[in-house]
Design brief:
Shape: globular
Oligomer: single chain
Number of helices: 9
Helix content: 25-40%
Strand order of the largest sheet: 4-6-5-7-8
Radius of gyration: 40 Å
Order of helices and strands: HEEEHEHEHEHEEHHHH
Number of strands: 8
Strand content: 15-25%
């Protein structure tokens, strides 16, 4: 009995032959995922591993499928997206989107998948996008476009920049759920409908230069040069059908006479 207890075997009362002191000489008891067998005659314990039961086919997952499911569940910034919301693919895509937006208000949302404040604020941003279908919301993933964000001087998240037509950037700030009123006020101030005949300005010239200087980005920008006014007038006059028309000879003679008279008056004659 004592030897059985020391060997970790729980004896059971049995009336058959080969019993020791009224107890069975052979018994088994599970021990932490294994089954232990022992006998008093041999005095040895054999550990046999239990085989796990196979999962039903409905619960089996293909290799890599579990990682895909986890990563898909973690893409919180794709939940609740509206038709006027999309993620920026590159620096060129951002610049072109701002220029092609015309006079429409564009909200650029800088976020990071690991930013708790960004994740908490995302449902409200999606709600604002639903309530303002004429406003374009562009998402910039900081982890994917870290070099571009560095050139645009974005160093805190969540971060927002508002662009509107010919005015270019009209607002820039960071906010959280506690300071969401800042976002509401900017949206109400810059979203009213208006018509502008001037092309959209897009990114600031300093931002375009910084993006072009970044070797990690495939972005090109040529700073427009200044043309002297005389050269611009000459080019405009050389174009056929332009606004410059030749004057009649009588008008030319009249202008010459008036210029001569004005010169005499100015000299005191």
């Amino acid at each position: 009995m004592a030897e059985a207890l020391c060997n970790g075997v729980a004896p059971s009362r049995c009336g058959g032959g080969g019993d020791v002191g009224g107890y069975s000489a052979k018994s088994s008891v599970p021990m932490g995922g294994y089954s232990a067998k022992s006998s008093f005659s041999a005095g040895r314990m054999a550990m046999a591993e239990r085989k796990p039961r196979p999962l039903p086919r409905s619960l089996e997952a293909a290799p890599g499928q579990m990682n895909l499911m986890v990563s898909k569940a973690m893409r919180w910034w794709e939940k609740g997206l509206q038709p006027n919301m999309r993620e920026v693919e590159s620096a060129q895509d951002l610049a072109d989107s701002l220029l092609n937006a015309g006079d429409k208000l564009v909200v650029v949302d800088f976020f990071s998948p690991g930013c708790g404040g960004c994740r908490a604020l995302h449902p409200k941003i999606a709600q604002f996008a639903e309530q303002n279908p004429d406003v374009l919301f562009l998402q910039v993933n900081y982890e994917t476009h870290k070099s571009m964000c560095y050139s645009l001087h974005v160093h805190v998240l969540p971060f927002f920049r508002f662009y509107r037509g010919a005015q270019g950037r009209v607002s820039s700030f960071s906010c959280t759920n506690a300071t969401i009123k800042k976002f509401k006020d900017a949206l109400a101030k810059h979203s009213p409908e208006r018509c502008s005949l001037v092309p959209a300005r897009g990114l600031e010239e300093s931002e375009l230069v910084a993006l072009a200087a970044n070797r990690d980005l495939q972005f090109s920008y040529e700073k427009p040069g200044l043309i002297p006014i005389a050269e611009a007038i000459a080019k405009e006059a050389a174009q056929s059908g332009g606004p410059w028309l030749s004057l009649p000879s009588t008008a030319t003679e009249l202008l010459t006479q008036e210029s001569g008279m004005s010169s005499l008056l100015s000299s005191g004659r």
